[in-house]
Amino acid sequence: MEAKAIARHIRVTPMKARRVVNLVRGLQTNEALAILKFAPQAASEPVYKVVASAVANARAAADRAGEAFNEDELIISEAFVDEGPTMKRFQPRAQGRAFQIKKRTSHVTVVVSTQKGGEN
């Protein structure tokens, strides 16, 4: 069984979000949530929410299918961060100049699956 969760337009740069996602890729979901809860990076909060949402989606899919659901069997089979749209802002500088500031966004995707499904 597989379930997916996507968070789009997260106001964190993709490079910073990838550091956090790399911490939890391939781990069991319970262990990943514990790591994300205490990770010092700011990007760990939105990634935590995406992983928790993927687990909830897996629970809902199991309920719809009438299957038994065990949260301990779920692992993060896929996790990646794509670049979202960049907001362009200007900052005034000396002598009437303007410097461009790029406020980057991210799309975080997490796929959880049972260990049996991930090995096949």
TrEMBL record:
UniProt keyword annotation of Ubl conjugation present: no
A GO MF label: structural constituent of ribosome
Gene Ontology process terms (BP): translation
InterPro entries per the UniProt record, alphabetical: Ribosomal_uL22, Ribosomal_uL22_bac/chlpt-type, Ribosomal_uL22_bac/org-type, Ribosomal_uL22_CS, Ribosomal_uL22_sf
CDD domains the UniProt entry points to: Ribosomal_L22
KW Ribosomal protein (keyword) present: yes
Keyword annotations of the record: Ribonucleoprotein, Ribosomal protein, RNA-binding, rRNA-binding
A GO-annotated cellular component: cytosolic large ribosomal subunit
Coiled-coil regions listed: none
Its biological purpose: This protein binds specifically to 23S rRNA; its binding is stimulated by other ribosomal proteins, e.g., L4, L17, and L20. It is important during the early stages of 50S assembly. It makes multiple contacts with different domains of the 23S rRNA in the assembled 50S subunit and ribosome.
Quaternary state and interactors: Part of the 50S ribosomal subunit.
Family in the record: Belongs to the universal ribosomal protein uL22 family.
Protein name, UniProt field: Large ribosomal subunit protein uL22
